[in-house]
Amino acid sequence: MTDAETTPGAAGAPTPRVLCNTESLAATDPAPAGALWRLAEPGRQLDANLIRIPPGGRVGAHTEPDLDVLLLVVAGDGTLGTAADPQPLAPGSLVWLPHGSARGLIAGSSGLSYVTVHRRRPGMRIGTRPGT
Fold first, then answer.
1. Which of 6, 96, 107, 124 has the greatest number of CB atoms lying within 10 Å of its CB?
2. What does pLDDT average to over the chain?
3. Other CB atoms closer than 10 Å to residue 43's CB: what's the count?
């Protein structure tokens, strides 16, 4: 390592660090369904989640109109449903889900655990209506 990799940043600057071990979270027996981990660091520009779908479970077909999403399969297997042909998913599959694309997921016999990463959505703001 170089000095730059080990020296803390300026006062108040975020410090790179390991956030979780996706392999051990996905291997929890029995693994619960839903979000096993969420990125919650203050000041972040990204959102990320570790999601578990139980065996035979699914995320119904939907379209994300605003955000591109990267999906990385970390455990299990399944199928990515698209407007074209279904695509098999296995550990190590890295999938780009472009905004505006229709997609769905079906978990295989061992379930499906995956990490998603996308730009953080801005928070809702309360304000006045335009023209008032």
1. 107
2. 84
3. 6
